[in-house]
Write a structure and sequence with these properties.
The protein has helices at about 15-25, 50, 95-105, and strands at about 5-10, 30-35, 55-60, 65-70, 85-90, 110-115, 120-125, 135-140. It has about 150 residues and is of the alpha+beta class. A hairpin with a 5-residue loop joins strand 3 and strand 4 (about 65-70). The longest helix is centred in the first third of the chain and has 12 residues, at about 15-25. It is globular, with a radius of gyration of 15 Å. It starts with a strand and ends in a 7-residue tail after the last strand.
Length: about 150
């Protein structure tokens, strides 16, 4: 069964924001990593400042809900409050991921083609025809929020 969570994007304050949310909701981060911890890539030219920004953080709020987030980098420009969120759709199979990704992207714009990632998920992101940002993910390990 597909699960939907909110994914927030920030301009460098993601760590601070998520420490604040953690102080309210409690619990522990199931993952927290910076852009500097990514494997080297020719696709990303990261400044020293960007390397310290959050690439991904997951904070379980309940058994069913995970609040997720990241910072943007100078390569991608700043986000504005109001368009700094995505709906994260986590599904049970690659086929289901392909189906939802294809259907949601029709008439929209693919921002990251769906495919295997270094973090172990089959993942893609898009903006649908109505301007809503989506992330579609199948986690090979079936561990939610990774």
């Amino acid at each position: 069964m597909a699960k939907i969570n909110v994914y927030l994007t920030f301009n460098g304050e993601c760590a601070e924001v998520f420490e604040f949310y953690k102080s309210i909701f409690g619990g522990e981060f199931s993952y927290k990593g910076t852009f500097g911890e990514m494997p080297p890539s020719d696709e990303f030219d990261l400044s020293e400042q960007d390397k310290n920004r959050i690439m991904h953080v997951s904070l379980p709020i309940s058994k069913e809900t995970i609040l997720m987030g990241s910072d943007t980098t100078s390569q991608f420009g700043n986000v504005k409050v109001g368009n700094n969120f995505s709906i994260s759709l986590n599904v049970d199979s690659r086929e289901e991921a392909d189906k939802f990704f294809t259907e949601l992207s029709e008439g929209g714009k693919i921002t990251m083609p769906i495919g295997d990632t270094f973090w172990g998920s089959y993942f893609g992101s898009l903006e649908d025809q109505f301007g809503i940002n989506w992330m579609v993910s199948f986690d090979h390990n079936q561990s939610q929020g990774a």
